[in-house]
Amino acid sequence: MFRDPPRALVRLSIFGGLSIILILITWKGSASLSYSWTPPISEFELKNISQKAKEYAENPVQAPYKSTFWEVGQRSRDLSQWLSKSDKVDSTSKVGRQLRDVTEITAQHLFPFLRNPPRNPGSKTPLSDLRHSFDRGSRGIVIPVGGGEQSVRFAGHLIVSLRKVLGCRLPIQIVYAGDDDLPKKDRDRIAELDGASDLEFLDILAIFDDTTLKLKDGGWAIKAFALLGSHFEEVILLDADAVFIQQPERLFAQKAYIEKGAFLFHDRLLWQHAFKERHEWWKDQIKEPSAEMNKSLVWTEDYAEECDSGVVVLNKARVSTLVGLLHVAWQNTYDVREEVTYRQGHGDKESWWLGLELGGSSYEFESHYGSMIGWGEGTGGNVTKVCSFVIAHTDEKGKLLWYNGSLLKNKRVDPDGYEVPEYWMMDGKWHKGRTKDDMSCMTDTEVLELTAEEKRVLRESIKIAKEVDIALKGTA
């Protein structure tokens, strides 16, 4: 064994060298140690960042807000870059601490709703605290519920349908704005429904100081904060009246979401050239449109509304996506929404893409504008028009995925009028109902019949919804 010491030493040296290389490769690939492979930013770069942050602090964004959306976006982009750098620097080092302090101060000046979090009012690092509250790698569904019995009822329909008809296994978080919004009795009524498993409740007022938000009576405004404040890292945000035809888990598998980290759905193509002032404002604030913006028919052909925010899918683990979400949330703070957001659009809808766009976040819409699902009209058995009160949406393969507006045929007129849709259309011409009590229709494209499986899902969802109605009435 020891007859040839030089050869043994050579072999030992080679083995040792390879071992060291493998250790280094493994170490470099470790997410927890990734900062060690990124050299700290230079003192010069940190000085420039600190100077810019000081300028922002000395010149805060103030009312009137209509002309400030672009500026908030530019500052958001800087914040996103600084956060990304901070994540790659040893947080215990002097430079790491200084950079973290700069990002925290900038974030709180830009987004005051981060200050004084009820869980830790004295915290100097509320953004960092919020990020650490996200369960790494977690995925879940968030449904804002509150404001009355209809919201409780539709949430019950949605939750039980997801569990018992579609077999959805994602955890669900119900978010509300204080006991007046969703009293404990109503929370218990939802939790006790047959099928309402893996369900939790979150009072958003325990996460964010309501001083600048006024979410108790804010309606749609709670949605952005529900998504932001949830402990899920990857979130599917749902309106309570959403109806799913496929499992919501499919949303996380869409290429658009995987690649961009933010997946949105289009509204109907309506009212071309009808909102001149709105479009002029968008053009003024979106000075450098992204590639996604340039694909928009609302942007390029002057249609009225871009987004159906009944479903929003975001990955908060991505820094740029998170900062874009902060911009969305800012648009839904009380003063901003009252002055601008809810005047330039219908509720929160347009704030989603606008915040991501201005904040420099990557995002993508479904490939088709809002589709129609409903009931056919025509002559001689030849269906040429499909009408209803809802908007349908498809997956990346062009298959029906979900629609808004509840399982009721017309939730405004008949609270007991359940009916399974028969037909749907995509990429046709929309004809808006004269009033909210009149159906809208689509024409000028192929009429498609729902498959047997799609009808089964909706038929069983309606059956379960009726059972939920009985259960809720028994506990009212």
From TrEMBL:
Compartments it resides in: Membrane
Keyword Iron in record: no
Family (UniProt): Belongs to the MNN1/MNT family.
One MF term in the entry's GO annotations: alpha-1,3-mannosyltransferase activity
Principal subcellular localisation of the protein: membrane
Any Gene Ontology biological process: protein O-linked glycosylation
GO cellular component terms attached to this protein's record: Golgi apparatus; membrane
Protein name as annotated: Alpha-1,3-mannosyltransferase MNT3
Recorded topology in the membrane: Single-pass type II membrane protein
Transmembrane intervals: 9-27
A Pfam cross-reference name: Mannosyl_trans3
Alphabetized UniProt keyword annotations: Glycoprotein, Glycosyltransferase, Membrane, Signal-anchor, Transferase, Transmembrane, Transmembrane helix
Keyword Membrane tagged: yes
